[in-house]
Amino acid sequence: MKKFLYIFLISLFSCKQDSPVPLPHPVRAYKTKNIFILVMDGARYSETWGEPNQANIPNIRSLASQGVMCTSFYNDGVTYTVPGHTAMVTGYYQVINNGGLEIPEHPSIFQYYRSQFSVPATDAWVISTKDKLEVLSDCIDPEWAGTYRPRTDCGVNGNQTGYREDTTTYRHLMDTLKKYHPHMGIINFKQPDAAGHANNWVDYINGTKKIDEYVGELWNFLQTDSLYAGTTTLFVTNDHGRHLQGVYDGFVSHWCDCDGCRHIFLLGLGPDFKTNYIEKAHYSLIDIPITISELMRIKMPNTEGKVMTTILK
Ligand SMILES: [Zn+2]
Ligand SMILES: [Zn+2]
After folding, report:
1. What is the pLDDT of residues 255-268, one digit of tens each?
2. Which ligand is closest in space to the CA of residue 163?
3. Ligand 1 being an ion, which residues bring their Cβ within 5 A of it?
4. 131 C-alpha vs ligand 1 centroid, how far in Å?
5. Residue 248: nearest ligand to its CA?
6. How far does the centroid of ligand 2 lie from the alpha carbon of residue 277, in Å?
């Protein structure tokens, strides 16, 4: 019906050249009703999609054929954990304390979502192995501070109580999805990063493989659950990479703007993405919340990111 109206309006205006009346912009109808961001903390591109056989991410490699893999995806801000995650939920690269001692300047996509859709706090979640990521649930913007916050389940028992194991986080994630059926969330798994800092290559690789398993299991659950199937979008990404071999201490640390620290991947799965599509255009962490706002029809003004239009159907 919309199509006929559109054709009718085009034919109506086409007889008047330089018509001052703008053509109607067709509103895209998206199927996404739920969106989750899963973060594999601190895995370097050279050990994920950039590894020649993608041997450390077999589930992600296989799932990529059902969705979009962005191979020129970057953290273009500070390559630490809290700044990276802040970019993913606020759409801004902010120089923010990495120890959980500071909350973001700008409201998150979760706060915008809750305020515009009048949904309860249990509808949006920050679920994280790292306690400090609890800061993602609030901001200092005086118009938003303390309001419309998502629920949090971070670290041992909240900010400044220490990291827990990824297995615990995965169990909490699944329990939360089944109990509350939230529409949005961000999930952080620490192990590649934690093992890298401990200079343990074997654990770094095994941690990456384990999170890849979680991605496979989570996507399988989302496709079989009656409330999530067919209407759920999943982003899988990293908050930052690690130094390239030969830069500072190599895979042990991260913080600079070398390609190892900045270059990460983004997997997009869901009903509104192209399938079996490799995206080579440069996209960046701050584009994630803006793309979520587009898919979920959430107004998110004045951010620095852009909608990743080329990955959409
Ligand atoms: Zn990190
Ligand atoms: Zn670096």
Report:
1. 999 999 999 999 99
2. 1
3. 41-42, 81, 193, 239
4. 12
5. 2
6. 29
The predicted model scores a pTM of 0.92
Q: Which two tokens stand for residue 211?
A: 């999170």
- HSE value, Cβ hemisphere, 13 Å, CA-based, for 159: 16
* Identity at 220, one-letter amino acid code: N
What's the token pair of residue 24? 């109607």
Domain boundaries, the chain: 32-311
121 Cα–ligand 2 center, Å: 37
Residue 26 binned pLDDT confidence (cut-offs 50, 70, 90): low
CB 157 within 8 Å of CB 120: no
What confidence tens digit (pLDDT) does each residue in 78-119 have?
999 999 999 999 999 999 999 999 999 999 999 999 999 999
Residue type, 225: D
How many other C-beta atoms can be found within 10 angstroms of the C-beta atom of residue 211?
29
Phi-psi region of 39 (alpha: psi -120 to 50; beta: other; left: phi over 0): beta
Superfamily of domain 32-311: Alkaline Phosphatase, subunit A (3.40.720.10)
Ligand minimally distant from the alpha carbon of residue 132:
1
**186 DSSP β-pair partners:** 37, 126
Cα of 81 vs centre of ligand 2, distance in Å, is 14
